[in-house]
Amino acid sequence: MANTPFGGTESVEGYRSKIITILKKNGRSPLSDRELATKCRTNRGGAANFRKAVDALCHEGIICERRRGYVLSSLMGYFPATIVRLSRTFGFARPEEEGAQDVFIPGKFLQGAMVKDRVLIGNIPSRSGKPEGEVLAILDQADSRLAGVIIDENGKLMFRADTMSKTPLQIQRKDSVIYHEGEKVLAEVVSRGQRHAEHRVKIVFSFGIATRASVCAESIVAIHGVETQFPEEVLKQAEKLANAPIPEEEYQKRLDLRDTPIFTIDSAHSKDLDDAVSIEKTANGFKLGVHIADVSHYVQPKTPLDVEALNRGTSIYYANRVIPMLPEALSNGICSLNPQEDRLAFSALMELDENGEIVKYDFRKTVIRSAVKGVYSEVNEILAGTAAPELLEKYKEVRHMIPLMDELCDVRLRERKLRGAPELETAEGKLILNEEGVCVDVKAAERGKSECIIEEMMLLANEAAAKMAREKNLPFVYRIHDKPSPEKIENLEKILLRLGVEVPVFTNIQPRHLAQILDGARGTDLYPVLNVMVLRSMAKAAYAAEPIGHFGLALKDYAHFTSPIRRYPDLAIHRILSSYCETPDAGAIDQRYAAFVEQASTQSSETEVRAITIERDCDDCYKAEYMQQHLGEVYDGIVAGVTDFGFYVALPNTVEGLVHVASLPESDWINDDSIAFREEQGTTSYRLGDTVRVQCTKVDINSGNVDFALIEEGNESA
């Protein structure tokens, strides 16, 4: 080892300190390996420790090796980040600094980095005003799995990844997995190069033919790391709980509501019935009961069931599939509020004034017995006065409550408008599959009054739960929705001024400001544009341990209490409220659950994003499968989005397709602030909300992409 000034030997830690001090003094000028070793007074005996110190500092991203030598990363503005997304031509990295924006990385600056790699990033000049960077070093390589398709490239089978690289990758070896051209497969990167195109893969699983949406959906689920099967110990625990009768002591210590008229309202095919309602009119307003399956009674902390539920975070729904958070023995069995069966529930019992405001609430552990499995479409018929006698007979025990629920819903909708919550519109599609699982139709989902009624009842229970937690100072998992960022509001203001729309005073943005914008444009040609722009200006909702309120709902108190079968945050707060109901000691509750709510909030936010991504991508594949059967057909749609390479057109059935700039007449086309796609010198423009006629020209089920071409008037045979 190297001699120290005191005649001893230099340790790795000693070299680390020296290297950092020397590079800090040297500023932004690099030092070569030899220069750095000399300044550290490294001799032959200390060379090994010097090298270990340099390697460790590089690996941690504290120093970085450039062409002319080593520099201190912090002095150069370099920072560690994690690759969070890759496309074929670019990627995004998320800095480790809390609150920092994701950084856009052009493909040529990725250095072969993969999703979940920890990297060192340097800033580069931005063309968009948003952060752009380059990967300077890969600090930690993640295990990399990719979904893609097997293709034939000049007689050789190659792997074409769905994301990452335009260039097909070489397959290192077949191993025991059999695969063929045109199959959707899962591949593992086994050898890395300096560019994505230089990576080598091995095939670990074949899903089947890539022109089936069901196959592509299966691969989407797999690539996001979602397990479709439950571990054996979890299934056994669920079966044991489901097969056990309700203990007699539970009947004794709970509020018995089995004689109270209570019923569920869900879609016809729902099997996981986790919420039921009861209502009565009072002299001053309403008494409302929202009765939720007591999942926390069955799923105890840190059991195999609980660990699995936390990992999953939420149930995932796409096409005709459900990947449940809990095994079916619980979700469709003992926890489901099936009619004419005793069930353990956690009830939010609320007294509301004539304006539908909560004046009193109580949370009680209960035993209930749902009278009817209500169906949205059937309740809508009753409300419309078109129900057949046999349908009225089915609901005879609870029919008196339906007009009261309708009345309360109307009161709540008026109150929502008064508090300034913006009414945003989002289109949802309903997929129709045949017996073979092929998508044969796509329809815009219709929402009737009963769906609105249940939504308002659940909002009240969610508000009451959050209100109780805040007032009692309990650790909690809140559903939060922050104010839009100043940057997004500034951009919205600029667009409003361009469109000639009156701009509210945005110095302290409030929900009512956005509501005013939408209400003023409703029914006009500008409304579709403004609806999209207001949606884009909003922050993303998430889960958090601090109650900052819900901007979009204009509520001070909000949480998710009503779906513990399919959402972990609801299960988490049931657990906390249950403990408080048993022993109302906020201090003891805080000690027990403080760390848990932080973990549950973070995990639930992440798994929610994952579920939304999976559901959206799977639906796109099924919609593309449907459009494959309608190639060449002509549709009327509206311009729904603008990009640098064209614009998206949405059909009335919610299918979206791209009109690529290459399919338009030759001209200098530009993206005009994401409002319109227009000629830079000419007069032609396609603005958000414009009606256009398009022909379906190309479909890729594997990617979920649909391409449209514009049809000029009088040229529909093109």
What does it look like?
The protein has 718 residues and is α+β, with helices and mostly antiparallel strands. 33% of the residues lie in helices and 27% in strands. It contains 19 helices and 33 strands. A five-stranded antiparallel beta sheet has the order 5-4-3-6-7. A five-stranded mixed beta sheet has the order 9-8-11-12-10, with helices on one face. Strands 13-20-19-16-15 form a five-stranded mixed beta sheet. β11 and β12 (200-209) form a beta hairpin. α1 (12-26) packs across α3 (47-60), α5 runs antiparallel to α19 (586-628) and α18 packs antiparallel against α19. Residues 1-8 have low confidence and may be disordered.
What's the gyration radius in Å? 29 Å
Question: Structural class of the helices, strands and pairings?
Answer: alpha+beta
- The 3D shape can be described as globular
Strand order of the largest sheet: 5-4-3-6-7
Unreliable stretches: 1-8
**Count of discrete alpha- or pi-helical segments spanning 4 or more residues:** 19
User: What oligomeric state best describes the polypeptide chains here?
Assistant: single chain
* Number of distinct beta strands: 33
Helix content: 25-40%
Largest sheet: 5 strands, antiparallel
Mean pLDDT: 92
- What percentage of amino acids are in beta strands? 25-35%
How far apart the termini lie comes to: 80 Å
